[in-house]
Amino acid sequence: MAKLPPRERILDAAEELFSREGIKAVGVQAIAGRAETTKMALYRHFATKDALVEEWLRIVAADYTAVFDRLEEAHPDEPRAQILGIARFIADGLPGISHRGCPFINSIAELPDRTHPARRLIEAHKANQMRRLTDLCARAGMSDPDEAATEITFVLEGAQVSTQNGSVEDAGERLMRIVEAVLDRHSAPKAAR
């Protein structure tokens, strides 16, 4: 099996180490060593550690965006099915984040400077997800799409934190039940509430 090019090895090593140990705890020497390359090679591909962090998070964000895209393709005229698919994706991924947690939440905790390029990338990614979710809620006929999208976002992100800290059992299935309840409640005519 052929060895990956240095840039891909560096990104893979960064993902593994940042996910397991955190951004601040991992130095470029550890990343270069894990990638079986040198610091000089790392800096040829990424001018700074911050640039590497930003590129890693750009890839993570693209993976989440791809989920929305795949669900849109699989259920083009079924916004409710797309919303439930997003929730299912998060629910199914909870066991994988139980040790270290969501890369976005963890990165924001380690990057308090709101002007940091990686922090701005996360904020833009989250804003785009919220816009897409709000649009899906509107297309699904929710009585208040903004509120429904906000509630669903709270549940999706809260489930990830609760899984990481071990405070809620069966978080994935509970997440699915809550999202369905939000959709049902916002689908009901206002007069029926």
From TrEMBL:
KW DNA-binding (keyword) present: yes
Record's keyword terms, sorted: DNA-binding
Pfam families per the UniProt record, alphabetical: TetR_N (PF00440)
PROSITE patterns tied to this protein: HTH_TETR_2
DNA-binding feature ranges: 27-46
Gene Ontology MF term list: DNA-binding transcription factor activity; transcription cis-regulatory region binding
The keyword Acyltransferase appears for this protein: no
Protein name, per record: TetR family transcriptional regulator
Native species: Streptomyces cinnamoneus
